[in-house]
Amino acid sequence: MDDPEKTTSRVAQLVEQLHSNASSPHEKELTTACLLGVAKARKAARALIGSHGQAMPLFVSILRTGTVLAKINVAATLSVLCKEEDLRVKVLLGGCIPPLLSLLKSDAAEARKAAAEALCEVSSGGLSDDHVGMKIFVTEGVDKVVEGFIVGSLRNLCGDKDGYWRTTLDAGGVDIIVNLLYSDNPVAQSNAASLLARLMLAFTDSIPKIIDSGAVKALVGLLGEVKDVSVRASAAEALEALSSKSTKAKQAIVDAQGMPVLIGSIVAPSKEGMQGEWGQALQQHSMQALANICGGMPALLLYLGELSQSPRLSAPVADIIEHLLIL
């Protein structure tokens, strides 16, 4: 299909077939497969699809209500389109993110893979603003191929280039990340907590959603001794970010019995013989979270001084103050 006029005519014909109410589900599967083939074969076809006024609304409709095969074809087409910068933005603005996120929950492995790949491609423009680096984000309960694409998506989204985080938040992204705090995979837990920290620092209006999701109790629980040190350090990082932005969040941490846990985390590296940067990060984030909750470092020292007078003292306050002075 080297003739530009034929390419234009073919794309218009295929989009019109999708738009037709007379098309059966099977016919839509064939049409979406043809569109995918045309998009893969020619850059000009990709531009025509992206600029067609009906294409994105039709894609969104199929992703929501089409057959599994049609959904897979559309998701794959979006992946191809998103390799072009200007078309990637059109896919985002066209409203494709929410139905792609929904497709990640499909029972069909191929559908999940196609959705994850599309999400990774649509988010790829955020790499230059990457604040997470090359951390591996392993998710729970999905196959390995999907994991890799979701890793890229979440990493890319953290830069918030073109408003990706905002779009993902509106599509329920907080719940997806918070659920990963309950994974039995420490890498998933650590990176989910770290992503929450960055999310809260970028969007303070996400904090009420995070509090309501039960994340505070989960994060406090991740500070426990049985957890991997990287998980504990990332949980402390998230609690630091949470406590720096919201009075309600500070109270939520207190209500979740977070104060004694954070206090214990300051001395945990020396007490448990931790080595390396994770132990130092655990100390620093825990200390700053406590200072945020108390209203500053002087107020924290005053609180610890009052705590040392308690007849039921269990926290090693002297050791804590010593660590604070060193830090």
From TrEMBL:
What span is annotated as the signal peptide, if there is one?
Answer: none
An example of a Pfam family matching this protein is Arm
**Keywords associated with the record:** Repeat
ARM repeat boundaries on the chain? 214-258
Q: What is this protein called?
A: Uncharacterized protein
